[in-house]
Amino acid sequence: VVEYMKHILESDPKLSPHKCDQINNCLLLLRNILHIPESHAHFLMPRLQSGSGHQVSMQNTILWNLFIQSIDKLLLYLMTCPQRSLWGVTMVQLIALIYKDQHVSTLQKLLNLWFEASLSESSDDNESNTTPPKQTSGDSSPMLTSDPTSDSSDNGSGGKKESC
To answer: Fewer CB atoms inside 10 Å of the end CB: C or N, the chain?
Structure first.
């Protein structure tokens, strides 16, 4: 589903109403899958065993696979699209389900660490903001094709605005 959404976004810089509906329907599908209670999920597929002998819930397995496919970068990219109002509510619901089992204090600590790391990286990367950024041509959606280990501040867009 994530790859399909990436394909839709990379196929044409301008999204038709039909393609916007497809993106929203994909987000709805992911939301609905994550909304299935764990007690019902074991009927579909038994709990998986990790290498350490611990059982891994189906929800955690699904989330792990979504993050491997860069769902975080895709969601960030979708938040910047001009058509974001068409799938905004669905995205909020999906994000709420992704982080539903996390404690607020844990998320705050992780966000603070991420902010500190991104601030130190940005000050190291570009001492002077007077130099024009490198422009690359042919990048249809740098957020979707960026290195999975990079963050959104290092997406190769060269400062140019991309449209969906």
So the answer is: N
**Cα–Cα distance measured from residue 15 to residue 143, given in angstroms and rounded to the nearest whole number:** 16
Model pLDDT for residues 64-90, shown as the tens digit of each residue? 899 999 999 999 999 998 888 999 999
How far apart CA 127 and CA 43 sit, in angstroms, is 56
Please state, in angstroms and rounded to a whole number, the distance separating the CA atoms of residues 1 and 27.
9
Q: What is the pTM of this model?
A: 0.60
Cα(158)–Cα(64) distance, rounded to whole angstroms?
A: 30
Confidence class for position 60, pLDDT limits 50, 70, 90? confident
In terms of phi and psi (left: phi > 0; alpha: psi -120 to 50; beta: otherwise), the region of 158 is left
